[in-house]
Input
Amino acid sequence: MAFQITKAVIPVAGLGTRFLPATKAMPKEMLPVVDKPAIQYVVEEAVAAGLSDVLMVTGRNKTALENHFDRVGELEEVLRKKGELDKLEKVKHATDLADVHYVRQGDPKGLGHAVLRAKMHVGREPFAVLLGDDIIDERDTLLTRMLAVQGERNTTVVALLEVDPSQAHLYGIATVEPTDEDDLVRITGLVEKPAFGSAPSNLAIIGRYVLRPEIFEILEHTEPGKGGEIQLTDALQELATGPDWGGGVYGVVFRGRRYDTGDRLDYLKAIVQLASDRDDLGPDFRPWLKEFAATLTIDDHEHPDAP
Ligand code: UTP
Output
């Protein structure tokens, strides 16, 4: 019988420099997307996929995150006294959502280093990693599919997205071969942020991984790579190509809605799209948005490649 994965690791210790000054005193994962911080969408996704044991790898700004997933007795009392029970429910929801644990990363030496900090908590089990600034629309069940692939093949699984070739230098990029399943590929090589124009494909790794515990042994000897950081992509490359690890690395090609809220433009798109789709806001927001969009003029020289 396949092992039932229950643990999710969410690294939230990055410096978020693309979003300064908003992230000077607050982690980017706490930036609101409509009316919830990005991190809450991510925890909700983990829980929806059956992962209710959540470990956050935090940095210097952990207080806001911890407070968000903790009880706020005073606020709850005020809302209860006022009879504002729907708001009370929203406040309590974040607290009751999952069993959230925290470990400090120390220096933010890269995503691979952040994942290695989860070793003690995870032990010898397969586990999921969800990046705290990467939102997958709840209507698209990417993580559930990845967990199923892990269970069936007992392998390492990453999420891949087809990106515009002009964007490939911003991601970890995979070389792949097909399998007998739709949108499932075997990864034969990985490279972190290839030089512009030199990417071996346009399949980019996005922020969802289902890993086997061997990754920790690899990360322990992974040298700093791109940007002087210990890169998870480099450790996965060893797993995909090294002879000793078994299982290999597979990629689920994601064709749904994904928002990188650590990027300012994608963050704006996330808010507009998610608000438009909401039952409570959409009916007022959509007509306004349509009217506003009609007033826009776009010069040909402005981002001709943008979708
Ligand atoms: P990013 O590269 O997007 O995060 O890392 P960053 O370095 O904070 O962003 P910029 O480029 O400066 O704006 C992806 C994820 O990995 C976490 C981040 O918090 C984010 O969720 N991360 C990254 C860590 O937890 N520790 C690190 O050392 C680096």
User: Anything to note?
Assistant: The first helix runs from residue 38 to 48.
